[in-house]
Every structure is written in C-alpha cells, then in structure tokens.
Design a protein that fits this description.
The protein is of the alpha/beta class and 541 residues long. Among the domains are: 97 residues, Orthogonal Bundle (Helix Hairpins); 113 residues, NAD(P)-binding Rossmann-like Domain (Rossmann fold, 3-Layer(aba) Sandwich), CATH 3.40.50.720; 86 residues, Regulator of K+ conductance, C-terminal domain (Alpha-Beta Plaits), CATH 3.30.70; 64 residues, Regulator of K+ conductance, C-terminal domain (Alpha-Beta Plaits, 2-Layer Sandwich). The chain has 18 helices and 22 strands.
Length: 541
C-alpha cells in the first residue's frame, strides 16, 4: 500500500511539473518571439489544450516558427505522456486499487491444512477434491497467495511456522495438518500444530532421511518419504528385466493378489488376445492394465493382440497367477542381471541398495566421487557411459535430480544402447512425456508419488495401495453407487477403472460380474491409472 501511494504521488508531481514548466516557457516565448505577453491563466489554458490535444478552436495567437515548433512539441509530449501513463502508471494503479490483499483467515472446518503450496500438492488437491474433502493452503508469499486465490483455491497468507497463522487457518478444527515446506521448516510447523492441538493428526514430508528423527521428535504422526519409495519403485521396475520378469506381488487380501507380468518374446501368449486365450477365463483373473511401449494403458482392449515385452497388470489368486507366470516367462531366458544407476542422491542410493539386496550387480555413476560411486563423471557424456559399460546392462536407472539432465542422459542412452531398458525419474510431472519421447521405457514422477502417498494417509475410507507405481489400486467406499449394479453404472466405460473386488461383512469377494449390486457397507477395491481412479472417486462420492 505504501508503494501504491508513492507511485500516485510521483505521477501527480510529474504531471504538474510538466504543466508548470510548459506554462512558464509559453509565457516567455509569447513575450519574446510574438511580442504579445499573455497572462498566467491564459498560458495555462493553452498548455492544457496542447497536452490533452483538445485543440485551440479559432484562437491560435502565435505566428513565429519558434512558437509553432514549441506548440508541436507540447502536442507530441502530450500524446507520449498519454501512452506512457496508461500502461505504466494508470493501469497498474487501477489494478492495485481494485485488488484486495489475500485472505488471512478462514471459516473452514473438518479440512486439511496444507503448508504450503508445491507441485506435488496439486496431485494431493486433486485427490482431495475428488472425494469432496475441503483443504486450505497456507502460503507465506503474498503474490503466490493472490495467484492461488485467482485460481479459485482456498488459501490464506501467513507464515506456517507461527501459531497465529495456524490458528487463523482454523487448524484446531481441521482433520489434519500437512507439513510440506522443507526439511528445515517442517519440524517447526509440526511443533506449532502440536501447540494448537496435541491430538491433531500431522503428516510430514521428509526429503533427507537424516532429518527423520527431528520430525518424529517434534510430534509428526506420519512421515512420508517419497524419494525412498520412488527409488524402491524404480529398482523394482529394473528387477523386472531379469529372468523372473515379474514385479513384487501385492496381496489384496484373502489370497487375492495383483502383479505385473512381462510377456517374453517366446511366450505362447505373444500374438494372442486377452479375450482369446484360456489363461484369463477364470472368474478371479482380471487384466486391469498393461504397459505398452513404456506407457500404461488402463483396461486394455481385450481384442488387441499381446505383443512381446508387454507388461500385463493382473489380479487373481496365487495359484492362477503362478500358472499365468509360467505362460508369460520363458524358463530358458538368459539375461544380464546388471543395473547401471545414474545419480547417487537419495533416490539413486535407494535404487542401488534395493538392487544389491536382491543380489543384482550394480554400477553407480555420479558427477561427484564418493562412497558407493563406481564411475565419476557427467552422465550425458558418452565416454562416461561407456566407462559404465551401459551397453551390457539389463537396465539403466536415470535417477537425476534435474529433469533437463535426465532428458539428455536418456537421449544419449537411447543412442548408445537402444536395446537396454531405460527407467527414469522425473521431478515435474510435466516432463514425464518428454522423457518418454526421449526414449525412456518407464518414467515415474516424484511429485506424483508424493501427492498420492499424502492422499493415502489423509483420505478417510480410501487407501492407495500402490503409491510407487503409475497405476492405482485404491480401497474406497462409493456411497453414490449404493443400490446400483456395476453394469448399470458402467464403471469401465465412464471411468476407465476395473472393480477388482469388494470387502463385504469382513470377506473379500472377487470375480464381480456386471450384475453385482453395491451395498452401503461395501468397500470396493478399484484398479486403474491416476486419472481413472480420480474419475471413479468423483463418480462414487
């Protein structure tokens, strides 16, 4: 506001200064060059008419070249001032005059207080909006807070470390507080939230594992460590390039499992269709997705042929999946069990640790030498990659902290080792498609993993069982579907999801047909990609 008044004062002084100066010069010019002295009032009138280009009617009492030139200069300067004043002074002043400061309090209750705005916060907000859970962002930067307000997002401006800010955010009546500023600030936010209400659930995002103890000591109920989860997920994907060729199986309950199976080149399923092969005839076995060319396809077309190296995401009982695994994996497959890890940050170290724990040979490349680094150098340099012998690896994991570097590294790897699987980490979800276009076979975004992990801890009645993958397996209720059959709702067509099973009266039921009717106490287990499960949550609530 002080800046606003300074700009107003400067503009007014400049305007009156120009008018006064021109008035003095005009009076002097009329007396000197025209021999016709004019009064100050008459001189002021002529100057104002010249600057505003209002004209002079029939009264133009000058005839000398000097005065005619001076009047021309006044006219041009008036036009110039007009064009300068509008965009530089007038428009900003009007904008500031009508703009209001961002809100500093809220009336929300039973909401999630998110401290503060971040890229993965967008993923979390989408998840919360899908199930109708209100949320409030706490943003310390006023300009950022204004932009969020303009985007229709509930936000207050204030420092999340301060008690007054959390009180203004109505944290005492919130369902949870998310500390997601940075590793240095989060413990202070947690302490402030605990001061507001000792029983208030607090979830904290941890980047560096060394600060975990501070978050725990401050009183965080739940710690989200997305970099470790991301590293584990990338390592698990890399493990799928080895002879077993299947991901870690996830148990849904009562013997029902979900797994990823890669169809080998000599599998008898190559060229078959999902609808045409007897291996999927069992009622409990469902193909809920497929990886094709590095991209996840939810609810794949059952009439399309299965290509070699297609990864099928399948649910079923253990014995059925064991038979399916024997049909997809060649027992004579002989592959290298060597992984090259590009980057030795938190994610890269986790990848290396997981691979070594599975008795896989690893080679770590990093720009900085240190313990655990095998090759030192720029991973975008072909000589460095040659030193790491990437051509003989079964997979290369690009775990760099910079998306631009990751893209260049992927391009170089695709050129040097086109047959080697490239598994990449992205920081910004907007760069996922760039990495795919650069040649990556599988990309997982850190921000997406973080947002989904947070949502899994915050949304009551919903559990995201697979936060480290690009498809969701979500356990949730669906009140708006109660009394309706799956066929009537047409879940697959409307959302792209598959209802894998239902928990009813403590029992897990699978193999649900189109005639299955949802009851009020049912908990549905739904599979699909991020967008599909979000659409289902919107449909079911």
């Amino acid at each position: 506001m002080d800046n606003w008044w300074r700009r107003v004062a400067l503009s007014v002084l400049t305007f009156f200064g120009v008018i006064t100066g021109y008035t003095v010069v005009y009076r002097w010019g009329m007396a000197t060059f025209e021999g016709e002295p004019v009064s100050p009032v008459r001189a002021l009138q002529v100057v104002v008419e010249a600057l505003t280009t209002a004209g002079f009617g029939g009264d133009a009492p000058w005839s000398s070249a000097v005065m005619s030139g001076f009047v021309v200069v006044m006219n041009l300067s008036g036009v110039l001032l007009m064009f300068l004043a509008l965009p530089v002074v007038v428009v900003p002043l009007l904008k500031q005059a009508v703009e209001t400061d961002p809100p500093t309090t809220t009336d929300l209750t039973d909401h999630v207080v998110i401290c503060s705005n971040s890229t993965h916060g967008e993923v979390l907000r989408d998840e919360l909006e899908a199930v109708g859970v209100p949320y409030l962002l706490v943003e310390s930067d006023p300009e950022s807070a204004k932009e969020l307000v303009d985007d229709g997002i509930d936000v207050i401006c204030g420092d999340p470390e301060h008690l007054d800010t959390l009180r203004a955010a109505n944290a005492g009546d919130a369902r949870a507080v998310v500390a997601d500023v940075d590793d240095d600030t989060n413990p202070i936010v947690i302490l402030s939230a605990r001061q507001i209400d000792e029983d208030l659930p607090v979830v904290s995002v941890v980047t560096d594992r060394d600060v975990t103890v501070y978050n725990r000591s401050a009183g965080a109920d739940t710690l989200v460590r997305p970099r470790q989860v991301l590293g584990t997920s990338l390592a698990t994907k890399a493990a799928a390039t080895f002879p077993e060729r299947f991901q870690k199986t996830l148990s849904v309950g009562d013997g029902l499992e979900i797994t990823e199976l890669v169809v080998e080149a000599d599998s008898d399923l190559v060229g078959e269709t999902i609808a045409g092969t007897d291996v999927f005839d069992r009622a409990d076995t469902l193909v809920v997705g497929a990886w094709k060319g590095g991209r996840f396809v939810p609810t794949p077309d059952p009439t399309e042929p299965i290509d070699e190296n297609t990864t099928l995401v399948v649910t079923g009982h253990h014995d059925d999946l064991a038979e399916l695994r024997s049909r997809t994996v060649s027992p004579t497959t002989d592959r290298s069990s060597r992984v090259v890890v590009c980057g030795h940050g938190v994610v890269g170290r986790t990848v290396a640790d997981v691979c070594e724990a599975r008795d896989m040979e690893t080679c770590v490349v990093d720009a900085v030498d240190g313990d655990g680094v095998d090759v030192t150098g720029d991973v975008t340099n072909p000589e460095v990659l040659s030193a790491a012998n990437v051509e003989d690896a079964s997979a290369v994991v690009v775990a760099l902290d910079d998306d631009t570097q990751a893209i260049y590294a992927t391009l170089m790897l695709t050129w040097m080792a086109p047959d080697v699987e490239v598994i990449a980490r992205a920081n910004d979800p907007e760069n996922v498609w760039k990495l795919y276009n650069s040649g990556a076979d599988y990309v997982l975004a850190l921000q997406t993993v973080t947002g989904r992990m947070l949502a899994s801890h915050l949304i009551e009645g919903e559990t995201i069982l697979t936060p480290g993958t690009q498809f969701d397996l979500v356990r949730t209720d669906a009140p708006s579907l109660v009394g309706r059959s799956l066929g009537e709702v047409d879940v697959r067509a409307k959302t792209g999801c598959t209802v894998v099973a239902v928990e009813r009266d403590g029992t897990l039921r699978s193999g649900l047909g189109s005639e299955f009717v949802v009851e009020s106490d049912d908990t549905l287990i739904v599979a699909g990609d991020d967008d599909a499960t979000t659409r289902f949550l919107e449909l079911g609530h």
